Sequence to fold (197 residues):
Amino acid sequence: MKSSSEKRFTLIELLVVIFIIVVLAGMLFPALGTVRDNAKRSKASSECLALKSALVMYESEFSRWPADGTGDARVNSQDDTSNSKTESRDTSDYPKMCEALTGSNKKKMIFYEVGVGYEKNKGFLDPWNRQYQVVLDFDFSGTINEEHVSQINSGLGRGTSTLNTSVAVYSYGVDGDNKDKTNLSTLAQKRKIVISW
Fold:
């Protein structure tokens, strides 16, 4: 028989302990979400730089930009009145460009190792499962002067709208949307966009 002096937890004490555990868990989960978002941003930044390097190596090897495997880039000009020869890639051409970088080229050279974020019909995908945005210098002037890049630079507080590079790669980030390109400056101000420059 148990003695009456033996201590036991009361229901109130158990509820208090459970409540404390729930409060601590509630404080921990937002912190884990922030860590997860930061990890995705780091991964996207690394992949932007790797994709930029792969494009530069491809151009160095073949003296043209990858597109459909033959080097004939089908691109959409930014607008008909623009004098800029820097153009962004057509969405339908992006998967072909990605294939050329992963070994579907004349020399069967691999310029970019395929990772988890790759689908044959979509190409390389960022950690939020969207295509990376790629801007190429098609006139080989060594500069990029493109509207979306200018919006991003404006949002980041950079005074220049021209980049002294031949390749720019970016991701819309966690809050971005492929269809909504009007808020690039706002996303850049909030430091949501991930860029390669």
User: Anything to note?
Assistant: The first helix runs from residue 11 to 62. The CA atoms of residues 173 and 192 lie 5 Å apart.
